[in-house]
Specification:
With 206 residues, this protein is an alpha+beta fold. The protein has helices spanning 2-26, 75-82, 151-157, and strands spanning 59-62, 65-68, 87-92, 104-110, 113-119, 128-134, 162-163, 174-178, 185-192, 195-203.
Length: 206
């Protein structure tokens, strides 16, 4: 009887351990910012498995190849999409960055766009896309909006897009945003004389 009871207890603990291991494998691992990229891969692992989702609203396309906020890119991958960089600079965040002090920012300027990449303090080698400012037609949004698109085309592509409340009131000369201001991912469109002049993709660090 005692032998049978010990056997049952042993089997119970084995079952618990196996279930715990399975649950751990199924749960997504949070990244440094506490979120996962749109493809379900944490930003910490996205460098090895970038998304090819060309419908992600927080991305820009070059020949149907996406640049997605939060995904990892090296300079070779960026050059394949954007060409050779005109300039490059690196910065380590100071104490004023609070919990992000010691993190790494890499800024790359290309013809018609500026890219900023982020790497956490304990890395400095792998960088994810933090922001992209576009002033050239070399890229477009998944909904077909690029520099030179009209305000009418912008509103048709993004139903319900909002004017950013920055004091400007002329609809033909103001900035528009997709989504809520409380979200960490943003895409904004600067409109002048009824035409899109600049597109900005960026992540706000929490």
């Amino acid at each position: 009887m005692k032998s049978g009871r010990k056997s049952n207890i042993l089997m119970f603990f084995i079952t618990v351990i196996v279930c715990a291991a399975l649950l751990s494998a199924c749960n997504g691992k949070p990244n440094d910012l506490g979120y996962e990229t749109g493809n379900g891969v944490s930003a910490g692992a996205a460098g090895e498995q970038n998304s090819q989702d060309i419908t992600n609203d927080y991305s820009l396309l070059a020949d149907n190849r996406p640049l997605i906020l939060g995904d990892h890119y090296d300079e070779a991958a960026l050059s394949a999409l954007l060409g050779k960089p005109i300039s490059e600079s690196k910065e380590v965040l100071g104490r004023e960055a609070d919990t992000f002090a010691g993190s790494h920012i890499k800024a790359l300027e290309y013809e018609g766009c500026m890219v900023k990449l982020f790497s956490p303090q304990d890395d400095g080698e792998k960088f994810w896309l933090m922001s992209l400012d576009l002033t050239d037609t070399k890229l477009q949004t998944p909904r077909g909006i690029t520099i030179g698109s009209t305000l009418e085309q912008l509103k048709e592509a993004y139903k319900g897009i909002e004017i950013i409340p920055d004091g400007r009131t002329n609809a033909d000369n103001c900035a528009y945003r997709l989504g809520r201001a409380t979200e960490y991912k943003h895409i904004t469109f600067e409109v002048e004389k009824g035409m899109v002049k600049e597109i900005k993709l960026f992540i706000v660090l929490p």
